[in-house]
Specification:
single chain; 15% strand
Length: 181
């Protein structure tokens, strides 16, 4: 039975396979599972794909951020971006306690391997991401308002742009701006 998902990202495929396995264990037919999975839509700000009038493909994953979800989002950008220019706009992750530094550094190491063309970071702790990302072309903004004022000139039609960060960083303001350019 073929399955089609309306959400992008390998992590969604893994979840769908798990759901299908649980359904099969409870004698729910795979045709019904396939229909349910195809009709599923992610809640807002969770890997929503949006096209801007100027030709940007925006991956809005601004609902929240943790190291694992950052890595999944970066991997999705790497794969979905294909031959397009890949830009990640990453805000700092909050509420990590003693793990804050290592969590940001781990995301930076992953970003370094994610084949990005441009890394834009937002927030003081996001600087740790940039330190680990190394040779990537990186721009650092203090907050989302500052980023809104600066990112427009850095983007080109055809770019795939991931926007992700903790809710406290208000990364959705960046997405709202990108939807207009």
């Amino acid at each position: 039975v073929p399955f089609r998902l309306q959400s992008i990202g390998n992590h969604h495929v893994i979840n769908a396979v798990c759901a299908a396995a649980v359904a099969a264990e409870h004698n729910i037919g795979l045709e019904m599972v396939a229909e349910a999975l195809e009709s599923y839509r992610s809640p807002g700000m969770r890997m929503e794909t949006v096209q801007s009038p100027g030709g940007l493909t925006i991956l809005d994953d601004t609902y929240n951020a943790a190291p694992d979800s950052m890595q999944s989002a970066l991997e999705t950008l790497r794969i979905a971006g294909g031959q397009h220019r890949r830009v990640a706009i990453l805000g700092e992750m909050r509420e990590l306690g003693d793990h804050l530094e290592e969590a940001h550094r781990s995301v930076g190491r992953f970003a370094a391997a994610a084949d990005l063309d441009l890394l834009i970071i937002v927030g003081a702790n996001a600087g740790l991401i940039a330190e680990e990302a190394g040779v990537l072309s990186t721009v650092h903004f203090t907050n989302s308002e500052e980023a809104v004022g600066g990112v427009g000139s850095m983007l080109r039609p055809g770019d795939f742009v991931l926007v992700k960060g903790s809710r406290a960083m208000q990364m959705e303001k960046i997405v709202e701006f990108l939807k207009t350019i």
